[in-house]
Structures are given as C-alpha cells and as structure tokens.
Specification:
Aminopeptidase; 6-stranded mixed sheet; 6 strands; 17% strand
Length: 169
Amino acid sequence: METDGVEIRPYDANDEDDAKELWKLKRGFELGLGEGTGGDDKAAVYAEKLTDEYRQRYREWVERCASADERCVTVADAGDELAGYVFVLPDDFAFVWDAAVLNEIFVRPDHRGTGVADELMDAAVDFARDQTLPLGRLVLDVDRENARARSFYDRHGFEHWGEMVAREL
C-alpha cells in the first residue's frame, strides 16, 4: 500500500536500517509522550529511560513480537527514512486486556497530515481483526491531555472504555 510516496509495509527485524530508523521513531514517540502533557517532570521521566540498554531491550522485544507475526509492527517507508510506525501486540499477548492492544503509533511531524497515520491505523485495525481474541476490541491508552491524539482516535472510531489508572512504585 502506498500513500503520497510512502509505502506501508511490515517492519523487517533483520534489516539494520529498519532497526535504526525504528529506534529514531521510538525516541520521537517517547519524547512526545512527555511533551506538552504533564510538565517538565513527565518529559524528563520519558527522556531518562532512553538509554542504550533500553534501546537494546526494545529491539529484542520488537524482534520477539515480529517473530510471532511480522504484521504486528508496520512501518511507513518514505524511501530515505521511516515516516512512522504502528505496533500492535501479537494475539499471544492479547490476554493483557483480553483484546488486541495498540501498543504504539507514531508519525514524524513532517509527515503528519499526509494520510500516513490513517494508513498505519488501517493496517493496525486489519491486523487486529485477524487475531483470535477473547474480546473483539482494539484497545490503547492515551493521555487525556493529548488533544491531538484523542482527536485522531475519535476520528477512527475509538470510544471511551474504562480508564487506566497508575501509581508510583
């Protein structure tokens, strides 16, 4: 599938360029989580975890998930870089919420508004529909202060379904 010169395809866990580009996107995702939705403390927490050890562990996690089903990580390939990605956990992990879990979706700012995010979401929904799940749902957590993300999910038919809460350890 191609959108505005961007190919939507499975991530290749054996391709070193894909791995490097996915890490750049993952950093953007993580840094974006703390940006503008919770003050400097939240931003610092997300930035501090992006160590070399975390990068290696993340890469191993992606490889493990992709070996279960290559469609769980889908990338938007703009030729010279990856423009974005979506990561839906394989159905082996569905028991986390008894549903398909949209773990991450991120598009580089310069590719936003081009339809890339919509294509990635379509790929995520198609993948989730093909899973064997206790509940026929695709779930995710989103920061209630992230109006842009909430608007995107609303546009794609996501509805409030419970609420995730957390506490410090």
